[in-house]
TrEMBL record:
Coiled coil: 66-93
Domain Ras-GAP: 192-407
Keyword Plastid assigned: no
Name the record gives this protein: Putative ras GTPase-activating protein sar1
Amino acid sequence: MIESRRDPNQLKANRYQSLRNYQPSNIAKAAYKAAAFGVPLGNSGNAKIDKRYSVASLWSMVAENDVEVDDELTKAQRKLRDLKARISAQSKRNFTLERDVRYLDSRIALLIQNRMALDEQQEVASHLDEIDNTVGTIPDDRKRQSYGNLFFMLQSEPKHIASLARLVSLSEIDTLLQTVMFTIYGNQYESREEHLLLTMFQNVLAAQFDSSTDFGSLLRANTPVSRMMTTYTRRGPGQTYLKNVLSERINNLIDHKDLDLEINPLKVYEQMIKDIEEETGKPCDLPKGITQEAAQENADVQAIIAPRLNMLMEITGSFLSTIIASINQVPYGIRWICKQIRSLTKRKYPDATDFNICSLIGGFFFLRFVNPAIVTPQAYMLVDSNPSPNPRRTLTLVAKLLQNLANKPTYSKEGYMLSLNPFVEQNKTKINKFLNDLCEVGDFYESLEMDQYIALSKKELELNITLNEIYNTHSLLLQHAEVLCPNEDDHLNIILKELGTPPPQVPRKENKSIILPLFSRWETLIADNPSMLADSQLTQGDVLYMDTKALMVQIVRTMPSLAKEKPLNLKRIAEAAATSHDATLVRKGIKVRDMLFQLEEIGVSDSKHEFMANEVAQEIIYLGSLKDKVMKEIKSLEVVFKTICDHNNYLRSQLESYKAYLQNVRTQSGTQVIKGKEKKSKQGHVFGPIKYTHSQLEKEGIIVESNVPENRRSNIFFNISSPIPGSFVIELYYKGREKPILEMDLKLDDLLEKQQMGIQLLDLEYVRLNVNRVIYLLNKQFLKR
C-alpha cells in the first residue's frame, strides 16, 4: 500500500537500478557458468533456451537439498544423507578388516611352523592393534594446505590415479584401493565423486586394452586393474543390489539341506558305494579307486545324475530369470563399466563378434560381481546361516553354469559340466541380449561438468583421511613421478616438490583420521568471479527469474497450505509470507514480492506470472513424489547398513581368533594334564579339562548338527583339554560311563587351515561343529590373558 503513493517513474527507475545491481546467488553463478560452457540439457536448438534449461535443471537439484527449508522432505533427505555417509564409512572399515584378515591368512603358515622371527611376529601383531579413531591434524599448516591441494587434484583429475593404478605392484594395490575407493571417492552415493571415479576406471580400462596382446586373457588375470574392478563391486550400491536380488533366492535354496545335486560322476559313484555299505552293513563289491571316465560309464551313476541335471538347469534358470528381471536395479556404475568394456572392445578389436564382446562383459558382471556372492553368500551376508554341504555344492554348480553361459566356452575344465550344454544353448540369445542391455545407459560427462562447477563454488570441500593414507599416497606418487608428471611445470610435479620427502608410516595406534580441506590454487572460485556471466548469452532478467522461482518454491515448501490454491497465485503467496509471524518468512516474502514486480517491469513476466506459477506447482509435485522415493531408499539402505555391520562383526571375530592364536604361538612351556583338574602354566595357558554339556555347545552355536537322539542329549557332555599349547583333545562322554565314547586330537593350526580354506564344519561323527566358533572357544578358554 505504501508503494502506490510513490512516483511511478521513480519507482520504475529504482527497480531498473536494483536489477543492474542485482547479485545472483552462488548456485545461480555455478549454473550460468556451466551454461556459458555450453552444457546442453534441452533439445530446442536455441542456445539461450538450452542454457535456461541447464539452469532450471540445476535449480531442481538444489531444491532437493535446500538448507533453508526444514520440511518433511528435507528431514528425510538429511536422514538419507546420514545413512549413506555411515554406509560409506562402514564399507571402508570392512575393507580394512578384510585386508588385515587376508594378510594374516598369508602369514599363518609361518606362525604354524614357528619359522617367524620375533620382529615379524611384532609386525603381524600390529595388524591386530585397534586404530585410534580420534581426529588428528598435520602439525605443519603449509604442508596441510599442500596436501589439500594435492588431494583436490587427485580427486578432480582422475587421470593421475588411473596412471598410478597401472604402475603399482599387486602388493601395493590394496592400500591404494582403500584410499581411492573409500576415501578420495569415498562418498559412494554422491554423483560427482562417483562420476569422477568412473572416469578414472575409463582411463584404466583404456590403458589395459591398449597394452593387451591377448584377447582371451583380457580382464581375467589377477592384476591391479581386476582387483580394482572387484573392489568397486563391493561398495554400498553393489551390496544393495546383491541383497535385494539374490538373498531371497539363495535362502530358499539352502533351506533344502537334503537336496543333493552333485553331478560329478566320480563323487556320485563314491557316494553310491557309501550308501550301499551303510544300508547293507557289508562292504560293497563294486570296484573302488576307478577313473572319472569309468564312473561316467556306470549305468546307475547315469540314472542318478540324469534327473539332477534337469533340476540343476531349472534352478539356474530361475536365478538367471531373477537377474535378468532386475536389470533396472543394477547400479549405474556397474552398467557404465560394462558399457566401457563393450566400447573399448569394439574399438580395439573391430572384428570381434557379439559373442566375444558379451563374453568379456559377462566376465566382469558374473565373474567379478554376481558369482562370488552366489558361491560364498555368507561372506556377502546374504544368508542368516552358513549353507550345509549339499546347498553349498548346488550354489557352486549354479555359479559355474552361469559363468559357462556368460563365457560360452567350447570346452570345460570339468568334463561333467558339458552335460549342461543344453542350458547354455537354450539361453545364449537371452544372455547376450541381457549383457548388451546392461550397456544401455547414458553418459554423465555433461552433468559431471556442472557438478564440478558446483564443487568449485563451494568452500567446504573436505576429505576424511588417515595420516597413513596421506603418506602412502604421497610416497607412491613420488616413486612414480617421472612417469606421472615428467614436465617441470606439471601441477602435480610442483606440489610434489613442495611437499618433499613423505613422512614414514606411523604405527597403527597413531594412525589418526584428519579432516583435510580441499581446494585448488589453479582454479578461480566461481562464487568469487563477478564477470562470469559475460559470455553466457543469458540476461540478468533470466537470472532474476530463476532466483525468484527458487525463493517461491522455498516459501511454498515452508507454508504448504499455500499450495492448495489452484492455480497458484504467486503475489498472494508472497504477501502471505511477508505478513506472517516468522521473521525469516517475512524477509523472504518482502524480497520475492519486490522481485515479482521487477520481473513485470522489465517484461520477463506478466502481472499474473502464470508461467512461473505453473513451474512452481510442477516443482512442488516433483518434490512431493521425491519424498516417497527417499523414504523407500532409506528403508532399503537400512537393510544394507545392517548387513555391512554384521559383516564387520564377523570380521572382528576372525581377528580375535588370530589375536589369541598369536598369543598361543608365543607360549613356550607345556605341563602335562593332571586328570580331572584344571592346570595353568606360568604363561597363563589353561590345560583343562573343561566340561561342556551338549545343550551348552548347541546354544552357543558350536554344535551345528547332531546325530544324538533328542532324549539322550541331556546325558551327553564333552571334556576338552590342552596337553600342550596349540594341541587339544575333545572327549565325548555319556553319563555313567567311565570311558569316553569318542576321543579326537585336534591341532589349532589344522583348524585355522580349515578356516582359511573356507571349510565351515568339523565332523566328530556324532556331532558337527562350527569351525570358527570352535577356534574362538579354544582360544578364549585355554589362553587366559
